[in-house]
């Protein structure tokens, strides 16, 4: 019997093998939904799992909600993809590449979150990167290849540096571990950290932070992200921004926990705060200059990853809870926005903000759904991001008063930019639809996932169930 | 084990040889010569891995050495040369920072690597810490090459020397688990970079992957 964590990795990969043999559009898209639904159902068993370490993987309160959310977004993205795929105009080869890469990505994402062994986690993040490069490049247009090339080179350097950090972290633990794989286990390292040489730990953290931080899209290592999310197939923006960034940030948080466990190291928190604040402020002002709707929301991902990083940098149970809630809420609301914006871009035949206007008048269901989703991403109540940002601000007021001004400036600037875009996209006079707009039924494959995400974001923000709240509270104690 | 003993000296010689070749990569003006230097660096990396395998009594490192030799000294240079011929690329190195300043910056980076690594690893064995300083130097020089060269093929070469530095670090740390798996996974990425160039037939883009060209596609300009 295969352990649950490995089953969650190999089920999507087996699905990828199945999808290799499916060259026709509709059956392949339906099979993709089937595999994603099975993976999601299987991931629900994690919620009842007692947890613990098994070989190279572990299940704990921190990775459980992230994995379940990943598979949920995988499923909703697969549903959205069913409607969006016709307009992409794939030939048989590209269609297969797209679906296979999607499932390979899902399996690697699960492994990246579930891995206890740092080496295995690194390999998983590398596989996820390679799969996302393939998906971004799948159109083969000059813009798509530029975006994929940039993703490849920048993230290639990023994960190479993360591997160097992994090697140095092992070097720190080497005198205390015996033979075998335990020297790369997060759990063993966490226990040993207090005895390791603090200087070596510091050096390891620098490389891990810069390496995985590149993958998490932190400023100044973010420049691959807007291109990748704007040029790939429309459905992919949702998983790129909702899942991949979380896996990378999760790795940074685990590294922070290990380094922070030694009292003699340079405290890792301020580094995270600096990266987070830089991301927040740069993205908040950059948002005002974007004319392309998908790029706009890609920049907003940079801002939100910055906020979550900032929260983990502050540390302590409350700020960590805010960071975790922010990751979950951002994944849900941002993928909802990408569903809406992607569908609107297909309707209008352009993803420029100026070409998409007046959605509420021409397509009321889509327009209002998208408007709510953008409001949720902007951090308006009662959605999850409001709760996490409120928590973050109160925590900053209590312990880091000097953070209030830059944090407030960034939050307000970014929220105002989003409201501005909300007005541009949803209100006003409608622009004409493109001649080859997708058929009416694709509204349902867009709006279904969008409302599911909004409903869950509402639940996270306003009415957190007691069991989930206990899980998140337990998770918030892990990063320290 | 210190200076003057054979295992230590040979390990240093090989690591130092890799660092020297990183500088060679920086000052070449012809892409063909850069590829030759990369192949030689790959071969020395294979020797270094094999020597560490012999010293540590770790037979799995011979496998790493074999894979490194096959891929980095033979296969990838061969593919890069085929790429040059087939797409008839510019044969000259186009620099964003001149050769002289690049070398000065390279020396500064090596000094930085030594200043960073040696003090903090004072507790570790001499061979591990000095190997790590060499490896970090190779990594930093690889990054420098990626930053200061305009041709995309040289950015790939820079990424590959960076990865060579990583493997040098990994084999130098005695008892590191999963070295073979990790080095193979890193290699797969390099093979895919080169393979991706073939599949997508990136031709003219090879000479113009710099930011000024990218902005046209960004949708930020009206």
Give the SSE layout:
The complex is a heterodimer of chains A (480) and B (222).
Chain A (H helix, E strand, L loop, with lengths): L3 H17 L4 H20 L7 E3 L2 E3 L3 H26 L3 H23 L3 H20 L4 H32 L12 H7 L5 H18 L8 H8 L2 H27 L8 H18 L6 H22 L1 H33 L10 H4 L1 H14 L6 H16 L4 H23 L15 H21 L3 H11 L4
Antiparallel strand pairs in A: 1-2
Chain B lengths: L5 H22 L3 H26 L3 H28 L11 H22 L5 H23 L3 H21 L6 H22 L4 H4 L2 H7 L5
Helix pairs in contact in B: 1-2, 1-5, 2-3, 2-6, 3-7, 4-5, 5-6, 6-7
Pfam families (chain A): Proton_antipo_M
Keywords (chain A): Cell membrane, Membrane, Oxidoreductase, Transmembrane, Transmembrane helix
Main location (chain A): membrane
Give the termini distance of chain A in whole angstroms: 34 Å
- Main beta sheet of chain A, described? 2 strands, antiparallel
Query: Largest sheet of chain B at a glance?
Result: none
Largest interface: A-B, 56 and 49 residues
- Count every helix of chain A, treating DSSP H or I runs of 4 or more residues as helices: 19
DSSP E strands of chain B, number? 0
Give the oligomeric state of the chains in this entry, treating copies of one chain as homo and distinct chains as hetero: heterodimer
Total DSSP E strands of chain A: 2
Strand content of chain A: under 5%
Roughly what percent helix of chain A? over 70%
């Amino acid at each position: 019997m295969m352990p649950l964590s490995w089953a969650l990795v190999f089920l999507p990969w087996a699905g990828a093998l199945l999808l290799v043999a499916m060259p026709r559009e509709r059956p392949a898209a339906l099979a993709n939904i089937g595999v994603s639904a099975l993976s999601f159902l299987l991931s629900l068993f994690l919620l009842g799992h007692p947890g613990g370490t098994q070989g190279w993987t572990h299940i704990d309160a921190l990775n459980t909600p992230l994995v379940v959310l990943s598979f949920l977004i995988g499923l909703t993205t697969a549903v959205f993809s069913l409607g969006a795929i016709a307009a992409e105009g794939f030939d048989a080869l590209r269609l297969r590449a797209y679906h296979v890469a999607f499932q390979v990505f899902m399996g690697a994402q699960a492994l990246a979150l579930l891995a206890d062994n740092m080496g295995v986690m690194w390999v998983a993040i590398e596989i996820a990167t390679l799969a996302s490069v393939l998906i971004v490049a799948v159109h083969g247009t000059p813009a798509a290849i530029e975006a994929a090339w940039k993703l490849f080179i920048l993230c290639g350097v990023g994960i190479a540096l993360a591997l160097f950090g992994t090697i140095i972290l092992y070097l720190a633990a080497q005198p205390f571990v015996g033979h075998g794989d335990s020297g790369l286990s997060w759990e063993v390292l966490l226990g040993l950290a207090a005895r390791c040489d603090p200087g070596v730990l510091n050096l390891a953290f620098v490389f891990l932070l810069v390496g995985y931080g590149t993958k998490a899209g932190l400023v100044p290592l973010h420049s691959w992200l807007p291109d990748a999310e704007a040029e790939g197939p429309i459905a992919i923006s949702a998983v790129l921004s909702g899942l991949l960034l979380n896996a990378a940030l999760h790795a940074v948080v685990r590294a922070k926990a290990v380094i922070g466990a030694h009292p003699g190291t340079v405290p890792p928190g301020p580094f995270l705060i600096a990266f987070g604040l830089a991301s927040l402020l740069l993205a908040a002002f950059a948002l005002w200059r974007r004319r392309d709707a998908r790029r706009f929301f890609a920049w907003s991902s940079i801002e939100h990853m910055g906020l979550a990083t900032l929260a983990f940098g502050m540390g302590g149970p409350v700020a960590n809870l805010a960071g975790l809630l922010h990751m979950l809420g951002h994944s849900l609301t941002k993928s909802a926005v990408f569903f809406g914006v992607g569908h609107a871009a297909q309707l209008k035949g352009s993803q420029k903000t100026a070409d998409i206007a007046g959605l509420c008048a021409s397509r009321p269901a889509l327009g209002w759904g998208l408007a709510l989703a953008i409001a949720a991403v902007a951090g308006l109540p009662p959605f999850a991001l409001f709760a996490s940002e409120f928590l973050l601000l109160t925590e900053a007021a209590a312990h880091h008063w000097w953070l209030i001004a830059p944090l407030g400036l960034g939050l307000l600037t970014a929220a105002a930019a989003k409201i501005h875009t909300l007005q541009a996209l949803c209100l006003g006079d409608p622009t004409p639809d493109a001649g080859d707009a997708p058929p009416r039924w694709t509204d349902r494959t867009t709006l279904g996932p969008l409302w599911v995400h909004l409903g869950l974001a509402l639940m996270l923000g306003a009415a957190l169930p007691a069991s989930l709240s206990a899980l998140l509270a337990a998770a918030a104690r892990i990063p320290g | 084990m210190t200076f003057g003993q054979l295992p230590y000296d040979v390990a240093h010689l090989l690591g130092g040889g890799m660092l020297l070749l990183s500088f060679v990569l920086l000052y070449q003006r012809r892409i063909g010569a850069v590829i030759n230097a990369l192949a030689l660096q790959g071969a020395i990396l294979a020797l270094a891995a094999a020597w560490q395998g012999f010293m540590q009594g770790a037979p799995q490192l011979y496998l790493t050495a074999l894979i490194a030799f096959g891929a980095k000294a033979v296969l990838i240079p061969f593919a890069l040369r085929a790429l040059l011929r087939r797409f008839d690329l510019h044969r000259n190195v186009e620099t964003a920072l001149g050769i002289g300043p690049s070398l000065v910056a390279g020396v500064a980076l090596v000094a930085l690597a030594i200043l960073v690594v040696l003090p903090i690893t004072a507790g570790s064995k001499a061979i591990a810490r000095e190997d790590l300083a060499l490896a970090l130097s190779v990594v930093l020089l690889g990054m420098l090459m990626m930053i200061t060269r305009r041709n995309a093929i040289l950015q790939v070469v820079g990424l590959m020397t960076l990865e060579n530095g990583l493997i040098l670090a990994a084999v130098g740390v005695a008892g590191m688990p999963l070295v073979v798996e990790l080095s193979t996974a890193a290699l797969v990425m390099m093979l895919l970079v080169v393979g991706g160039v073939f599949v997508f037939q990136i031709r003219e883009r090879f000479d113009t992957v710099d930011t000024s060209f990218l902005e046209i596609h960004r949708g930020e300009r009206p």
